[in-house]
Every structure is written in C-alpha cells, then in structure tokens.
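Moderator note: this is an archived Q&A kept for reference. The question asked for a predicted structure of one protein chain; the sequence and the answer are reproduced below.
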Amino acid sequence: MISTAFRPPEPPAPALRLARAGAEKSPASSTAAKATEPTDKPFEIKAGSGKEQARELAYKRLERVKARMDALKLMAKIDPKTALKLAAELAREMKGAVKAYAEAGGRNVSTGDLALIRKQAADAPEARDAAAEAGIDTAAMDAQIKDLGLREDDAMADYGFFEQVKQIVAGLKKARQDIRGESITALNPPSDEDWKAADRDQADLEREIDRAASGPVVSIRI
C-alpha cells in the first residue's frame, strides 16, 4: 500500500528518473483540464523508505532487461532457438521485477486512476481557498492536500513504471513473432518443448502484471 504519511520532499535517486513521462505533477493552481494532460517531462520516485528503495531495485532490473532487448532482436535473425530461450529468460526477469515492485507498494495504475487523482490534486486547493473565504477552518483540508500530493507522486511513478513494462512486453511479443518466422528456414529451430516453456514464462509475466493492478485505490476525496 502507498503510505499516506507526510514526508518532506527529498532529491530523487538517479536510478529512479524514469525515461518516459506518464504525466507531470499538477501545481496547486492548475485547472482540472490541465491535470489530465500528459507531458514529456520525466517523473520521479522519491527515495526514502525501504519500500521506495525496493522499487528502485525493481526499476534497475527493468533497465537491465531493456538493455538486452536489442540483442534479442538480432539473435532472432541468427539463431531462433537461442533467441527463444533468451526471450523466456527476459520474461522471467520481467516477472521478478514486476512482482518486486508490486510487493513494495507499486500498482499498475490505470489511465483513469491517474486522471482522477490529478484532477483532485488540481481542484483541492481551490476548494480549500473557497472554504477559507467562507470562514471555515481549513487545517484538515491542508493536511489532505499534502497527502494527496504524495499520492499523486506515487501514482505518476507507478504509471510510468508500468508503461515501460508494457512496452517491453510488446517488444517480447514482437520478438517471438520474428523467431517463429525465422524458424521456418532455420537449421536448428526451437522445438515444441522450447515453445511450451517460453509460452509459460510469457503467460506468467502477463499474469503478474494483471495482479499488480489490484492494489489500493490511489485517490482520496477532499
């Protein structure tokens, strides 16, 4: 589960700067419409707790798999049998990274979840200001706004992690298609048993990704 306790912002660990941005954190003055617009700025997982360090390690595992994808593409053309074994190995490594990330509190956040929490992050300060103008005590709302900001950070990091996971899964599927095509003319093609084992590993990976979507809801109401 994602912690709701307030913690002061800390500089992110370098390994946690993910390559693609799912979204940019909404400033307090943003409108709800802006909150749902993606940007190209990198998002960050803030370092600090043991769970966040575990997420960083999971991301490093993800990076290692990405670094081997080019080798898989080349191997598919040269030696389909070895390439299929490599694809299965990468699927197992990906499964381990996804499982570790989820066990550390990460969640496969949907686009709808992310849009909802970002909209709330943009709307909450306006609601707080309106309450203050009406003479209502806003101390509790201030605390909730801080909490919502932390949840938004977590949701954006989770979304970006799993977007990269999905890209790698797509790459593995494409490589498997190429391997199947090259196997037609290969002198030493993968055996039926090779395919069965690789199919198991690929299916296990995709099930692990699906399980990661069943975590706690990331948004709260102000």
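Archived answer notes: The helical segments are 32-35, 50-78, 80-103, 111-133, 139-183, 192-211.
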